[in-house]
Design brief:
This protein has about 300 residues and is mostly helical. It contains 13 helices and four strands. It has helices at about 1-30, 35-55, 60, 65-90, 100-120, 130-140, 150-175, 175-185, 185-190, 195-225, 230-245, 250-270, 280-290; strands at about 125-130, 140-145, 145-150, 225. The strands form two sheets. The chain has a two-stranded antiparallel ribbon with strand order 1-4. A two-stranded antiparallel ribbon has the order 2-3.
Length: about 300
């Protein structure tokens, strides 16, 4: 049971990181960025490419695998954030006042484009994560109550929690965070009091994309591989987590992600792995029937 809970927390933490991007964009724009899963996938590819470049250009630096992973994380986050910024400018900015269906179609089109762009650029085959860089984090596992827990798993869980808490503090305590919350509440009034809503919306996409890239690096390192189409299903699961916790609610996205990961892992272990893609949606249907706004969502009046 402990082993399954650890695995569920890791999976849930990744879902939560991706779900934060969905919930931030929805909270401010009222739109669902269905290309967000592909940004997560791009982050995974970027981390592998960054490690290959580091190895080729700086063999002495390659001898410090932990430092290389940190550098790869920074590079992945920066380039994925640039992709997120571009997605907002190309697929969303001109459609803010268009019918919701127009923005939805644009998002699906961008998702398809990014997936095929990576397939053409990197090929259809699985891309392996260099085992050398993860070796120090898995070579000496801890045995706790019969469960095998590696330092990599501990690092992933702690990193996910710290990143999410950091984002929550940023949104709730900083001037930029207050501007983001004001834009989410009323864009017109926010612009009247001097907030540049274009910059705030772009920043939201940038932050969400950076979080997804961090998740992409962690997952590709954990399972040792990635593929051009992994973003689709991960994005759907993360969107489910965001709705489960309460779409637009950052703590809700965190809770929904962890809950989804644990339920999915326990379902695979104790019921059947054949239905591993179904458990998440069963839980979502139950929660939405009992509480349509999600676990931490609040019913809000329509904006006019």
């Amino acid at each position: 049971m402990l082993q399954h809970l650890v695995n569920g927390l890791i999976q849930g933490g990744i879902y939560a990181l991706i779900a934060l991007g969905y919930t931030m964009v929805y909270g401010i724009l009222g739109m669902i960025n269905f290309a967000h899963g592909e940004i997560y996938m791009i982050g995974a590819y970027l981390s592998i490419i960054a490690l290959a470049v580091i190895t080729a250009l700086s063999p002495p630096l390659a001898g410090l695998p932990i430092l290389c992973l940190f550098v790869a994380l920074i590079i992945s986050v920066l380039f994925a954030s640039a992709h997120g910024f571009t997605v907002e400018r190309v697929a969303y900015r001109r459609l803010r006042d268009a019918p919701v269906l127009s923005a939805l179609i644009s998002a699906i089109g961008m998702s398809t484009f990014l997936q095929n762009y990576i397939m053409v650029a990197q090929g259809k085959e699985n891309k392996a994560f260099p085992a050398y860089f993860k070796e120090p984090l898995i070579s000496h596992p801890f045995i706790v109550a019969g469960a095998r827990i590696t330092m990599l798993e501990i690092v992933i869980i702690i990193s996910c929690i710290l990143i999410m808490l950091g984002l929550h503090l940023f949104i709730s305590r900083t001037k930029v965070g207050r501007a983001m919350r004001a834009t989410a509440q009323d864009k017109k009034m926010a612009s009247l009091v001097g907030i540049d809503i274009n910059k705030i919306i772009s920043l939201t996409f940038i932050i969400g994309s950076g979080l997804a890239a961090a998740g992409g690096l962690m997952v590709s390192m954990y399972i040792s591989t990635t593929r051009f189409d992994v973003g689709y299903l991960a994005g759907i699961k993360a969107f489910t987590a965001a709705v489960l916790g309460g779409i637009g609610n950052i703590p809700g996205a965190m809770l929904g992600g962890f809950l989804l990961g644990i339920v999915e892992t326990l379902g695979i272990a104790y019921i059947s792995p054949d239905y591993k893609e179904v458990y998440a949606f069963i839980i979502l249907m139950i929660v939405l029937v009992v509480r349509p706004t999600g676990l931490l969502g609040e019913r809000m009046a329509e904006k006019t």
